[in-house]
Amino acid sequence: MSDSSGIKDMKAWLEGERSGLSLALNTARGGARIAETLGVLGRQGLGWLLGNRPPVPALLRTTFESLGTTYIKLGQFIASSPSIFPEEYVEEFQRCLDRTPPLPFHYIRETIEQELGQPLEQLYQFVDPKPLASASIAQVHSAKLKNGQDVVIKVQRPGVRNVLLTDFNFLYLAARITERLAPGLSKSAISGVIEELQAGMLEECDFIKEAGNLKAFNAFLRDTGNTSAIAPEPVMSHTTGKVLTMERFFGVPLTDMNVLKKYTDDPAQTLISALNTWFSSLMLCDFFHADVHAGNLMLLEDGRVGFIDFGIVGRIRREAWDGMAKFFDAIGRGDIRQMAEAMAVIGMTREEVDVDALTRDIESLQGALGQVDPSALIQADRNDKEVNRLLMDLVKIGEGHGIRFPREFALLLKQFLYFDRYVQVLAPEMDMFSDNRLDMFGGADELPGGLLH
Ligand SMILES: Nc1ncnc2c1ncn2[C@@H]1O[C@H](COP(=O)(O)OP(=O)(O)OP(=O)(O)O)[C@@H](O)[C@H]1O
Q1: Residue pLDDT, tens place only, 409-419
Q2: Residue-wise pLDDT tens digits, 181-235
Q3: Which of these, 86, 285, 302, 345, could form a disulfide with 220 (CB 3.0-4.6 Å)?
Q4: What residues contact 420, with CB distance under 8 A and at least 6 apart?
Q5: What is the pTM (predicted TM-score) of this model?
Q6: What pLDDT does 119 receive?
Q7: Which residues contact 34 (CB under 8 A, 6 or more apart)?
């Protein structure tokens, strides 16, 4: 009895030592990362003081690119959030590229072997040391399993999680200081954005979750009899939190119009299949793919559309869906009271919302509301400043009543922006809201509450 408790004590002590050690190690790494961040900021600031003065948005963009992962993602968030950031920043940050120099192959080998617990040669017949792609979170290599199946391996860069955590703590601190210095700034806007981004990026670092999303998406396609799209099936025996092995797709990304034209004489139809699948997933899948830029869609050799990269997904609670439908319906009919009720359902609040007071506040926007067409509201085109301003005003009024809009709302809006952009490239003649090949109701008779009707 005393022996086993002695062993337990020893184990607890060892655990304590180990966690103390890893805490110290992480603190040291965190310190080094903060020093690195300050170094980059200092160099850029010095350059600026010494007379090399590009416009501030450009300076910020190059600074973000030098700072890596977290800031590149932050930059991409700015690029896709015209309703939050000024236009010149949105435009500049659209140039913020997530291209990172490839990691030498021995890091990839080490991560795979550490994660899967076997030498690389026992796990795969072949792994191409030259990466297919290299981004800030992961690097992708093509490979062959022992049974001859073609796969790709997505390998997380070493230390990414720690860098993210340190960067976010640093950003949070900087946001708090800024809030102190400029109390006029909307607190929930800054810290809210940082919180949303952190949640999203940490989720992107869990490849077991991503593999689960791939499987669930394919199950949704099977269940709905959708044969026009497919996601790569993960190979679970070769997958961990940091290594994702999945079926390899052969085809071309939807980014390059000229290449695409060689594979199909109707690129617009390919886009329509992709959009229809996505709309139907909004209603009929547990989640929606929240990062469908053209680089994450492929036209496969067999004509189907391949959806890749399920690192970021959004989920919409049933009540939030109903609330959103009610909200758009109310805008269409100019019914302010119903708008207020719907906002209270969509937003997450702890306290009871005073719907009467909210109605009165929204009424103050009535002039602007009357001029908005509900379909334009959903598109939230970055050129449509009126719509963006109105959305921002509504968000602000909601915040004043303790309503915080869920992350899904932003993800959904961002997705519509992406679509809008590549519809312009791939099918400029197509009008997303009147083309009858598009099925926005995703196979359902219509969205709940008549959304978009
Ligand atoms: N199953 C697959 N079959 C073929 N190529 C793939 C597959 N998965 C990924 N790729 C290639 O690797 C690239 C990066 O993959 P993925 O988008 O999953 O990684 P990521 O690190 O999230 O990149 P990004 O941040 O650019 O979206 C893809 O654009 C594609 O070229």
Answers
A1: 666 766 665 66
A2: 766 555 445 666 677 778 778 888 999 999 999 999 999 999 999 999 999 999 9
A3: 285
A4: 379, 381, 432
A5: 0.72
A6: 97
A7: 166, 170
Here the tokens at position 406 are 């869920």
Residue 91 identity (one-letter amino acid): E
Q: Give the pLDDT mean for 290-318.
A: 85
C-alpha gyration radius of the chain? 24
- Which protein residues touch ligand 1 with a CB less than 6 Å away? 98, 132-133, 135, 137-138, 140, 152, 154, 232, 246-249, 295-296, 308-309, 311
Side chain identity at residue 89, one-letter code = Y
Pocket test for ligand 1, best of 69, 96, 132, 239 (most atoms within 8 A of CB): 132
Q: Which domains occur in the chain, in start order?
A: 3-98+162-168 (no CATH), 105-158+206-314 (1.10.510.10), 318-426 (no CATH)
Candidates 228, 331, 339, 322; CA nearest to 283 is: 322
Contact (Cβ atoms closer than 8 angstroms) between residue 415 and residue 357: no
Residue 139 CA, closest ligand 1 atom number:
21
Please give the Cα distance from 271 to 266 (Å, whole number): 9
Q: At what angle do helices 160-181 and 2-49 cross, to 10 degrees?
A: 60
Please tell me the distance from the alpha carbon of residue 425 to that of residue 370, in angstroms, as a whole number. 31
Given the residues 98, 206, 256, 291, the one annotated as active site? 291
291 is catalytic: yes
Tell which atom from ligand 1 comes closest to the C-alpha of 140: 12
Counting atoms of ligand 1 from 1, which one is nearest the CA of 204?
22
Mutate to test the pocket of ligand 1, among 309, 310, 312, 313 (most ligand atoms within 8 A of CB): 309
Residue nearest to atom 16 of ligand 1 (CA): 309
